[in-house]
């Protein structure tokens, strides 16, 4: 009993254990706020990603200096050159596109460039620009018509309708030809001549009228001019 009472006294002397302290309320509140902030950010991010057209930012516009730095080509002078020379020049390949038309030209040889558009020296941006070229086909060739037996007026009309220039001369007529009609020309029918060429036309004079004015070369089978009555060349 003595030992039991001593144990009770020792137990009574021990200090009572302090009650467990609850976790700090401040730490718990901070954690809740952080969690709410994370949830809010996730919600906003999901909304932004769900909007169409908002996933990529628009590309910035190119500076104006890029446009101003484009290559400028100045059109060469093609007039007077042969088209084959221009066509086979590799310096022009890819830079210009040539649109070609042809027309007759009395002075420019066939295949020569006689006009261009745009004009030489014109500034063109970039490559692949179209240049219009007019190329000569040379003098226009026409067929000499058969006007033997035509009256002078009829022969003139026929030649002029073909772009030819008649030059009429009277020749002596011994009665073999109809007076006032064509007996010969310096160009045989069917031959090709340049448009604008002068055609010498020999017209039979009245019978037995002596001719003193005649072309330098008399018509075949005709005599040169002799003294006597004259007949001026008809125009």
Which terms would index this structure?
235 residues; alpha/beta; Trypsin Inhibitor V, Chain A; three-stranded mixed sheet; 10 strands
SSE diagram, text form:
Layout: H1 2-13, H2 25-50, H3 64-68, E1 72-74, H4 83-87, E2 96-103, E3 113-117, E4 123-125, E5 129-136, E6 141-143, H5 152-161, E7 165-173, E8 182-185, E9 192-194, E10 198-207
Parallel strand pairs: 2-5, 7-10
Antiparallel strand pairs: 1-4, 3-5, 6-9, 8-10
What does this structure look like?
The chain crosses the membrane at residues 27-48. Residues 69-137, 138-205 form the PASTA domain. Keywords: Membrane, Transmembrane, Transmembrane helix. Among the domains are: 70-136, Trypsin Inhibitor V, Chain A (2-Layer Sandwich), CATH 3.30.10.20; 140-235, Trypsin Inhibitor V, Chain A (2-Layer Sandwich). The protein is built from 5 helices and 10 strands. By secondary structure, it is of the alpha/beta class.
């Amino acid at each position: 009993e003595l030992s039991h009472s001593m144990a009770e006294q020792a137990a009574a002397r021990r200090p009572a254990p302090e009650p467990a302290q609850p976790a700090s309320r401040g730490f718990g509140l901070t954690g809740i706020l952080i969690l709410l902030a994370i949830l809010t950010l996730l919600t906003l991010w999901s909304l932004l990603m769900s909007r169409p057209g908002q996933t990529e930012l628009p590309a910035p516009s190119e500076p104006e200096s890029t446009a101003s730095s484009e290559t400028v080509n100045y059109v060469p002078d093609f007039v007077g050159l042969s088209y084959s020379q221009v066509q086979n020049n590799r310096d022009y390949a890819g830079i210009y596109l040539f649109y070609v038309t042809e027309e007759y030209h009395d002075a420019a040889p066939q295949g020569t460039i006689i006009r261009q558009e745009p004009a030489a020296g014109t500034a063109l941006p970039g490559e692949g620009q179209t240049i219009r070229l007019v190329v000569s086909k040379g003098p226009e060739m026409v067929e000499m018509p058969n006007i033997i037996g035509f009256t002078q007026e009829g022969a003139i009309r026929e030649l002029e309708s073909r772009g030819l220039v008649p030059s009429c001369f009277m020749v002596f007529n011994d009665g073999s030809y109809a007076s006032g009609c064509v007996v010969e020309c310096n160009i045989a029918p069917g031959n090709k001549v340049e448009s604008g060429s002068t055609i010498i036309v020999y017209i039979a004079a009245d019978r037995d009228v002596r001719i003193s004015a005649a072309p330098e070369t008399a018509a075949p089978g005709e005599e040169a001019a002799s003294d006597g009555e004259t007949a001026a060349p008809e125009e």
